User: Fold this.
Amino acid sequence: MSTAPIALSLGDPAGIGPEIIADAWRALRRSGPAFVVVGDAATMERAAGSDTVTAAPSLAEGGARFGDALPVFDIPLTCVVRPGEPNPGAAASVIAWIEAAARLALTGEASALVTAPIAKAPLYEAGFTFPGHTEFLGAISHSDTAPVMMLIAADLRCALVTIHEPLARVPGLITLEAIVRAGKTTAAALRRDFGMVRPRLAVAALNPHAGEAGALGSEEAAIIAPAVRALQEAGIDASGPHPADTLFHPEARAGYDAALCMYHDQALIPVKMLDFWGGVNVTLGLPLVRTSPDHGVAYDIAGKGAARPDSLIAALKLAREIAARRAAR
Assistant:
């Protein structure tokens, strides 16, 4: 149902989510894509103006009214939240908004899910056990495939083998199985969601200079190179391991469709250098379409009118494109 509106979970109400949602609606109200906010209507009224927000008893009705008002599927907060002041008391509501929005996407009432930023610490303090959105959505969607995070900026796509892990743990988590699983999920998503007939994967090394023939690390020869061969044997156009410091300049990017990175900052640094304001996070391997802005809650500027909606707008547009491709299959 690519014509259905997108379900947009409100995220942390103390962060910049409410204001960038309001700004995104103002930017997209005439051209779309249409979306319905799943969250606290009172919070959105404070961010967008009470005369702008309207209740959405259903996603279809909310989508139909999108150009005239910002529709909110209201699941009220049970505590007071102020911009810039994280409140663990809101954690249950934040989780409920994500889950409700995901359910709408899973049932087809929404064409896709877009998630506004959350902060991990208040959720962890309230007992949330998942490292982030990606892992939580994999669990509630009962996906047969472990989800993969991919970041997109301009012509660069970076998929991750490990996500929100301390750097000290990464070498122990880089296994042949993990790399092959992430590579297969990425290649399948590039075919299904991005229309690529034979996607090309460039697999990054873990160590400087791709291990320098073992002088700077053994993971390349022992784990990553065998994983690349396994991907090739599975019919995937994969190459590597490539030294990460030479993988992201324009000429290198022309040689692949996605880079498979070993850890969080290996992917996030080039993405944010390329397009700090407009990067998008996409979750691969889910039965629903999910994107999000590539930034956090920014408590320090929340409520001050300084936040930019570029990344959220890009996430909404990409979600519409992917949903349309899936619907056309």
The chain has two domains: 1-143+287-329, 144-285. The CA atoms of residues 134 and 298 lie 20 Å apart.
